[in-house]
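Why does residue order matter? Because the sequence determines the fold. Keep that principle in mind as you read this record.
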Amino acid sequence: MRALVLFALFMVSGQTPATTLPVKEVTTGVYVHFGKHQFPDNKNHGEIANLGFIVGQKCVAVIDSGGNPDQGLALKQAVTETTRTPICYVINTHVHPDHIYGNSAFKAAGVNFVGHHKLAAAMAARGSYYLGKAAEQLEVKLSAADLIAPDIEVKDSLKLDLGGRILTLTAHPRAHTDNDLSVYDEKTQTLWLSDLLFTEHLPTLDGSLKGWLGEIDKLEKRSFRYVIPGHGELVTDWPQSMQAQKHYLTLLLTEIRAAIKQGRHLEDAVQSVGYSEKNNWALFDEYHRKNVTTAFAELEWED
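Structure:
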């Protein structure tokens, strides 16, 4: 019966039924699907981010829902095949499509959506654009009902009890975006940092360069056994694995400030800043120019 229901849901979406999303238990009760380093397009349908779930004795918290509703359904199926414990929370770490487009797959009685206190506003501001881009870029049909805002908002920090397992959620200041949320599992000393950390994949800036570097300075002073990035493999040598990202972002800061001081314009900076890093990152050509543009706009008017 469950298979028939899932099949019917996929037929309504007009896409081929998904199989269960592959997940790996990286430490006790923490399951991750590791995305591939690809630009979102009509071949991968936005399925590029790290997603997963944490299992407690009472219930399960899903962390990010996927790049489209079908991936959300496949992640939900992975939960049901892993444990009989019900899902009680879907935690969205930030507003980007590869992390939230699967939300509607989890909408059900007893499931609360959790996010940064600025997430709902970001969803509302970008909603129309996101729906159009999903169809155009990903060939995924979405409606406003797929963009589910949080029922529970985190303004500073919040503890969620999954039953014998406490998760501490932290709402970060403007950094990767203005609505970044991290999840810390006390039981396994695992920090789900999402897109506040990129490894191998070029970091993408949609918030504040100075703010992101400020958050890195705070985070690298703490100890974690495991850190899960938004894109990249599991980190077990924190904070060493963050240094490449820190170096790239610091280079942007230094070189853009120098360009501005020299009276150079944005067009010049986009063609010259940061290119010593080109061979060190996947998807550099796809994202670097936008990073420079975003950072330049921030730094151009700093005191």
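Residues 2-240 form a domain with the Metallo-beta-lactamase; Chain A fold (CATH 3.60.15.10).
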